[in-house]
Specification:
Layout (H helix, E strand, L loop, with lengths): L2 H14 L3 H20 L5 H17 L10 H38 L5 H16 L3 H11 L5 H8 L3 H22 L2 H9 L3
Length: about 200
């Protein structure tokens, strides 16, 4: 057995016992490599740092399930890879509905507009949604962004389906009104009738 393998095996054994100094050693050994790996997928250091935090949080939470024969480096990189993948799936889900709205608006109303204007439209969408009262906004986002049905939202929030429908209806009415005020009627027309 190589010295490195013995060292790793001991670190894993100590970690499984809840030894925080073993955890710190693992962090010092691999965090920089993991950061570079994560950073290659993202545009900002903050996103990569979130991945590293997630990796080491998962390592600590699931330490008892690590086998001493595992390659620690391989194990950590597998966690990082899955965390990166989950982040992209989540980001895609979060942005999809706003991107669809913004792209449709730019295409139908202002085909000559460029990326900077797309970002402004995305910001306008966010601002309109933020103006909704808290529960109404939450229900609207669960429906439009997360894709939950009315009955699923009712169960999730422990409220009546009729209440969910009322909040969605009021949210749409408010957004229509705000859109007219801002001259974004076409954008909101698409938004409110957009089918996932």
């Amino acid at each position: 057995m190589k010295q490195n393998d013995k060292q790793e095996g001991q670190l894993i054994a100590d970690l499984k016992k809840g030894d925080t100094s073993a955890f710190e050693k693992i962090f010092r050994l691999y965090s920089d490599q993991l950061f570079r790996f994560a950073r290659s997928y993202f545009h900002t250091n903050e996103d990569a740092e979130e991945i590293i935090q997630d990796v080491f949080l998962k390592l600590w939470k699931h330490k008892e399930g690590i086998y001493s024969c595992d390659s620690l480096k391989g194990y950590l990189f597998r966690i990082a890879y899955h965390s990166i993948k989950e982040t992209f799936i989540q980001k895609n889900r979060e942005d999809k509905y706003k991107q669809q709205i913004a792209l449709e608006y730019l295409k139908t109303e202002h085909p000559e507009l460029e990326q900077a204007d797309y970002k402004l439209v995305m910001k306008a969408v966010d601002q309109l949604i933020e103006k909704l009262p808290a529960q109404r906004r939450n229900i609207f986002i669960l429906n439009k962004k997360e894709g939950l049905t009315i009955s699923e939202i009712a169960v999730y929030l422990n409220i009546a389906e009729k209440t969910v429908k009322n909040h969605l209806s009021l949210a749409m009415a408010q957004l229509r009104h705000e859109a007219r005020q801002k001259g974004l009627a076409q954008l909101l027309f698409f938004f409110l009738f957009y089918k996932r």
